[in-house]
Predict the structure.
Amino acid sequence: MTWELAANIATALAGAVALLGAPFAFLTYRRSVRTRRAEWLVSLHEKFFETERYAQVRRLLDYREEPSYSQLVQAVASGTHAPLADEFYRYLNFFELLASLRVLGEISDHEIIGLFEIRP
């Protein structure tokens, strides 16, 4: 066997490996992206539902506890400062973040709905 033939065989094998390896690398990349995206969505879910960060405002909006609910409505309507109104604005900022991510194409409607969908 000549060196030229060995070089041609090695080149052909390298090409075959590259052709076969490219789809595998692409699939591995796609899986990695999906995994990271799922981790990111879990993080958003945890920040919204599993920490106390938005719990007070969520409870207030869900159950309309008085007198806190009326105080919040009054503070927001009048534009006056109130600690509960600050919490409400932080709560709204979470949704502004989701809307911005949606506009940028970083999160889909399906993913947003999935974050808040109630499952039996």
Remarks:
- The mean pLDDT is 88.
- The helical segments are 3-50, 55-63, 68-78, 83-103, 109-116.
- Residues 60 and 66 are 9 Å apart (CA to CA).
- The radius of gyration is 26 Å.
